[in-house]
């Protein structure tokens, strides 16, 4: 592809820039866009492009399956699954709204859209990712009440409570990332951004204050709260399981009441196990991103751009994994999915099928 080479070296402090950063090289593409030189060979770029397309397709199919299953089967339309449904909506938004545009930036090293949409894209990325974290907090609260206070669960956790928590998760996340849209996150580093970024690249930067605060409140605090909650749930669940086991061994478990109690408790424990795995995967996928975003301002934004793209995309892939965790570890969802992809789905009364 024919292109001319433009050398962009920012004003400001030449000595500082020269000692830390090589001169910025920007290619003027055939489209007239001024972007950084390609970092990947054509073969590598094609492989990454295919891998990203596959992850987006898996995201859409998996989350759409969860959304359809909850919308269709009456047995899945229970209070805890309101958060599962909303989480799947957030995850599918990542696959449809965030990932496609980020993919073209990663593969072609150029932002083919407007500068205004670059800021909007960063805003949507931060908003949806924060909303996913808030949903996991809601799910942890639901599991905590269901396992640790089962006698008062129905009284304390109502549809109204769920609606308020969902509103707080979405609206709270929206307000929380307003600084991204207003440009507060780059106050004090504007000159650095101009000296490190070609005019038609869309690179995400955060200053030291917002990167540290963002990681603390978006990742460290929620993960700490959820980890403590699930540790408590695990201890209580083991205690309950031992208690019921002792009752059954003593002959008390022969009554119908205790059998029903055991079955209900087992379902609750299985559901808790599933969301615990989802929480663990979330931490595993997003920890590298938040570690990088905190560290980057303190090392003068020297993080390798390819490494940055990897940790960012790895976090987005989490949204494609969640629905398959539900399908793989939750028997009710697994049975619903089997029916959806079988002849039973088209038979009368399939919505009320026993899962």
Number of strands: 3
Name the helix and strand elements from N-terminus to C-terminus, one letter apiece.
EHEEHHHHHHHHHHH
Number of helices: 12
Mean pLDDT: 84
State the distance separating the first and last CA atoms.
57 Å
Find the structural class using helix and strand composition: mainly alpha
Strand order of the largest sheet: 1-2-3
Shape: globular
Q: Give Rg in angstroms.
A: 24 Å
Measured by DSSP, the beta-strand proportion falls in: under 5%
Q: Helical residue percent?
A: over 70%
Low-confidence stretches: 1-22, 253-257
Give your account of this protein's structure.
- It contains twelve helices and three strands; from the N terminus they run βαββααααααααααα.
- With 355 residues, the protein is mainly alpha-helical.
- The chain starts with a strand and ends in a 15-residue tail after the last helix.
- Residues 1-22 and 253-257 have low confidence and may be disordered.
- 72% of the residues lie in helices and 3% in strands.
- Strand 2 (24-28) and strand 3 (34-35) form a beta hairpin.
- The protein is globular and about 75 Å long.
- Helix 9 (208-249) packs antiparallel against helix 10 and helix 10 (256-298) runs antiparallel to helix 11.
- It has helices at residues 14-20, 42-72, 81-108, 115-148, 153-156, 159-176, 178-182, 190-196, 208-249, 256-298, 305-329, 331-340, and strands spanning 4-8, 24-28, 34-35.
- It has a three-stranded antiparallel β-sheet with strand order 1-2-3, with no helix packed on it.
